[in-house]
Amino acid sequence: MVTITKATTRDVRFPTSLDKTGSDAMNAAGDYSAAYCILNTDSEFSGHGMTFTIGRGNEIVCQAISLLAARVEGKKLEDLVSNWGETWRYLVSDSQLRWIGPEKGVIHLALGAVVNAIWDLWAKTLNKPVWRIVAEMSPEEFVSCIDFRYITDAITKEEAIEMLKKEEPGKAERIKHAEANRAVPAYTTSAGWLGYGKDKMKGLLQETLNAGYKHFKLKVGTSVAEDKERLSIAREVIGYDRGNFLMVDANQVWSVPEAIEYMKQLSEFKPWFIEEPTSPDDVFGHKAIREALKPYNIGVATGEMCQNRVIFKQLLQQGAIDVCQIDACRMGGVNEVLAVLLMAKKFGVPIVPHSGGVGLPEYTQHLSTIDYVVVSGKLSVLEYVDHLHEHFFNPSVIKDGYYTTPLEPGYSVEMKPESMDKFEYPGKEGVSWWKSQEARPILEGERI
Ligand SMILES: [Mg+2]
Questions:
Q1: What's the CATH code of the domain at 300?
Q2: I need a labelling partner for 13 at 20 to 30 A (CA). Which of 19, 33, 92, 264 fits?
Q3: Which domain holds residue 218?
Q4: What is the mean pLDDT of residues 297-317?
Q5: Which stretches are annotated as coiled coil (predicted)?
Q6: Using 50, 70 and 90 to split pLDDT, how confident is the model at 29?
Q7: CATH number of the CATH domain containing 134
Q8: Which entry of 128, 219, 313, 366 is annotated as an active-site residue?
Q9: Residue 430 lies in a domain
Q10: Does a structural domain hold residue 416?
Q11: Which of 380, 344, 348, 22 is nearest to 183 (CA)?
Q12: d(CA 26, ligand 1 centre) in Å
């Protein structure tokens, strides 16, 4: 029996704005950050969960994590996971904290960290990776993890159980694929940041092509002329007829008509999809863009800033997206993601999680494996960005263009203590990078 004794938070920030890693049309200079939740227990185990932000404001998420995590202090792990759906509902039901959401924004980012820390703790006590716990669940156990309130007009518990049962016959075979590291093909955004120069971009594209990738994503949205040049270079490297896919990402910079007009002008480069063409809340806007770009064979993708399962439900019900990009911690952790996997399956839309940042590939490798093994039964692709993995005990690893399926117990985001100390913000004098001279350009620079 494991009891959660005390929850602690850590504010960890990596100075990625220095070299423009992560730069796109909306986010010019992000410092990849983790708002961290650690659940200490009366046993040898501790649960580690985090939420990803890009710097300033990370302390607000840490505050929210402290408030939410207090709700599980003194609780037995066994009780929390024996009816997960109820636990999840309990965690969103502190009426005063709910007021500052509900189920969206900072409080929901914090929920993701807390819920995922419980999954990590549970998986460690069972000596299994998170994906395997879900893979070994019966359809009834799977749906019991989900709070179905607000989504029964799209999918009911009974329908979900039927759907999962239909995929059961091939499950053992797909688990073998997972064990052989053939469950999750990767795509890369490493070359595509907007702040990278053309030579750096070309070199990185060639490098990733040589490493076995077939899907490449580039940021767009500064100007049509600029983007045409960048996409020409990309197509020069990856070709048009060599089975390689090009995707583009605008990070919400356009209005709906602008997105349509802009993308028509980039259609000659044959992108598979345009990601985040406009506001993540605009369900009907995405639908209009999708319909306008259909004759050009360009799909619409979104999800990394989709705040909860309700918006995903609407995007799917309205036929507004071709690709569903769940985020491991913008939503309320594993449980809410499972709800979206089910809805996406029902509406026939592939899951291509948002990944990258810091810690996201470590999380999403589990989620894509669950989608393949348990829910969709189909191979998809998962974003991979090769930054900051060295800070984790069990980093995600790509081999031959596939994610290496995580086999270590837990949810893979436990960060090395020395990394946490070194990049803690504001941090301790003589320990934290943020107290060093090197940090001054960021701390005293223009806030963009
Ligand atoms: Mg994106």
A1: 3.20.20.120
A2: 92
A3: 162-403
A4: 98
A5: none
A6: confident
A7: 3.30.390.10
A8: 219
A9: no
A10: no
A11: 380
A12: 10
Query: One of 354, 387, 391, 422 is an active-site residue; which one?
Result: 354
Q: How far is the CA of 301 from the centre of ligand 1 (A)?
A: 9
Backbone angles phi, psi at 442, to 5 degrees: -75, -50
Please give the pLDDT value at position 193. Answer: 76
Quick check: is 433 in a domain?
no
Q: Is 354 a catalytic residue?
A: yes
Taking the centre of ligand 1 as the mean of its atom positions, its distance from the CA of residue 276, in whole angstroms, is: 7
Active-site residue, 387 included? no
Residue among 76, 171, 102, 129 at smallest CA distance from 414 = 129
Cα 284 to averaged position of ligand 1 atoms, centre (Å) = 19
pLDDT at residue 24 tops 80: no
| CB-based contacts of 246, cutoff 8 Å, min separation 6 | 216, 217, 218, 231, 234, 235, 238, 269, 270, 271, 272
The pTM score is 0.97
CA distance 247 to 305: 18
Closest CA to 139 of 172, 107, 161, 170: 161
Q: What percent of the chain has pLDDT over 90?
A: 90
| Residue 219 resides in a domain | yes
Contact 67, 78 (CB under 8 A): no
pLDDT of residue 196: 80
Q: How far is the CA of 217 from the centre of ligand 1 (A)?
A: 9
Q: Looking only at Cα atoms, what is the longest distance across the chain?
A: 62
Cα–Cα distance between 387 and 405 in angstroms, integer? 18
195 band by pLDDT with thresholds 50, 70 and 90: confident
Whether 33 and 144 map to the same domain: the answer is yes
